[in-house]
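User: Quick one: structure for sequence A, then sequence B.

Assistant: Sequence A:
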Amino acid sequence: MRIVIMGGTAGIGLATARLLAAEGSEVIVTGRDPQRLTAAGNGAAAAKGGEAGGGLVAEQVDGTSEAEVAAFLGRMGAFDHLVLAFSPGSVGAGTLAATDLCACRQFHPCRSSGM
């Protein structure tokens, strides 16, 4: 299975990426921070006994830039799942009861269209 996790270099995105890679999926994580990208790739290699990538590849992409996302997806080819594990600033952060769903819909219209 080929999975793209945008915002997958820290927190729940990275934990999900590592779990899926350990289970045999090909995982591509994206993020903006070069140090986090390197750490994500190195952590996957260490978990696989030094084997490069370990089923997890990290690529620098700013998920808030439509042009960068379009270029990245154009290079990716087919994949099975897309996980969005990021938001700009505090959009979507906090408890569900306190979350402004209108703000979330504006940032993630494709994910929240069924709400």
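Sequence B:
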Amino acid sequence: MPACTPTPGARGRAACPLLRHRGARAALMDRPEVNIRDGGVRADVTNPVIFADVPDPDVIFDGRYYYMVSTTMYFAPSVPIMRSGDLVHWSIAGYTAAILDDTDALALRNGQDAYGRGSWAASIRFHEGTYYVSVGSLTTQQTYVYSTPDIEHGPWTRSVLDGYAHDQSLLFDGDDVWLVYGGGSIDLRRLRRHGDGTLAWDGPATRLVEDADVDQTSGLNAEGAHAYKIGDYYYVFMIEWPSGGIRQEVLWRSTSLTPQSAGGVWEGRVVLSQGVTVGGRPGTGVAQEESSGHPTDSGTPCCSRTRARWVVRLSSLA
């Protein structure tokens, strides 16, 4: 099967289901055992829907297609955009840029490399006709935000924010735009818009939740924030990994963005703790993020945090 040859800032070969990242890291493959009886997300499917290394996904729905981004680490070009009409069959729609940044480590120059670092946990949003993708880089210690009115053809506007925002998530609330991020805590930082469409930090970070772990005293602290404003609540989905246990999905919510330290009330609980099997072997992934195109949906399709992509459904956010 031929490799997809992307055009920077534009659509790759639409018919090509295979994604190559300088070494064929990930493959988006048709799954012949998938049974989509009614052609929609409520149909029966056989998991995993993508049996490949596509970790830390984030998904949006723009009214026509689902678009997904993920962690690509040290591979290029930049952040791949994946597209699906049913959350099951995925192909490459484009890339945010030809490269993430021009550094010796990312370009493998002067004996440097970005192995195990690069870009992590991209976030994608569709707001008032514009698509946004943010991603942090452990190599450059910077955070990048891309925006475009046409996700498959571009052009993309690139913003560079000083500092690495760990597992950041874009959050839109009216005219306000924020990044929500953190490991073991939940931090919030506002962004401001320039006249040329770029974004920049607008003030220091605020710590919303000091201890984001739920019912665990040791292990991997809560991280992988995915933030949403749904109805009257702000929701932050995260994952944690208790020592001796499995990864589990935790959910924090509040009716305001007031920090706990200033009297804000934030409720946190475990919403999913279930082992999965990938290729006959036990896995540790759980549902990671809400992907509804309608903010008032109470039952939202989610993708998992396992390396292979799963589709599960959460029945309620209440």
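DSSP finds one helix and 22 strands in the chain. Residues 1-41, 283-309 have pLDDT under 50 and may be disordered.

User: Thanks, that's what I needed.
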